[in-house]
Amino acid sequence: MLSKENQEFLLNKFTRFNLLDDDAKTLINSTICLKFNDKNLLYKDKSSCYGFVIVKSGKLRGFISDSGKEITIFTLHSGDECVICSTCTSNLSSFDIALEAKENLEIIIIPPEIFIKFKEKYPQISNFVLELLAKRFTKSIQIMQQALFTPLSKRLVEFLKQNALNSKIKLTHEEIANHLGSSREAISRILKEMERQGKLKLLRSEIILKNEM
């Protein structure tokens, strides 16, 4: 049973769809909340199915992997929804995308059998899902284009700027490489050159950015 806080959070998400009272009760009674520790894997293949997922707190990283390499396709933050992780929520086929918890994740999950009924009953929900899928697909294509055509050094600089908190990034070189679809050796080589140029300082599992960035 969802806490009162999570019930309000969920209902606020669905206010725009004007659910009937009985459907709102069904939504509350069937939805669950799960928590995962940092770096836990939630979803490894299409046989895993969580239904429709809403991120309550933490971050949810979606990535693809091949031959020992990974590349981050999307990162969901608090309040974001995820439909690409499960084919049961859409008539569109999805990629084999793995999901990883970041920063101690808490997610609210609407079971697939419930969400599918809502999609069929409420055209607004069906349209909403299609829009989410389209946005996620567009973002994924942009990331793949950057991986293919943008120099790694430039992608690394952008990644550092976007993920810095108070000019600090608490990630290992291996983790950064996984986000960017590169190797740890290549990331370490570029970071060391940037440190030599005075743009940052490398510490153990932490990078401190300087004003020159």
Automatic annotation (TrEMBL):
Pfam families recorded: HTH_Crp_2
Superkingdom to which the source organism belongs: Bacteria
Q: Which residues form the HTH crp-type domain?
A: 150-213
Gene Ontology MF: a single term? DNA binding
Q: Does the keyword Glycosyltransferase apply?
A: no
SUPFAM superfamilies xref list: cAMP-binding domain-like (SSF51206), Winged helix' DNA-binding domain (SSF46785)
Q: Which Gene3D superfamilies match?
A: Jelly Rolls (2.60.120.10), Winged helix-like DNA-binding domain superfamily/Winged helix DNA-binding domain (1.10.10.10)
GO process terms (BP): regulation of DNA-templated transcription
Enumerate the UniProt keywords alphabetically.
DNA-binding, Transcription, Transcription regulation
Family matches, as InterPro entries: cNMP-bd_dom_sf, HTH_CRP, RmlC-like_jellyroll, WH-like_DNA-bd_sf, WH_DNA-bd_sf
Q: What is this protein called?
A: Crp/Fnr family transcriptional regulator
Please name the source species: Campylobacter hyointestinalis subsp. hyointestinalis
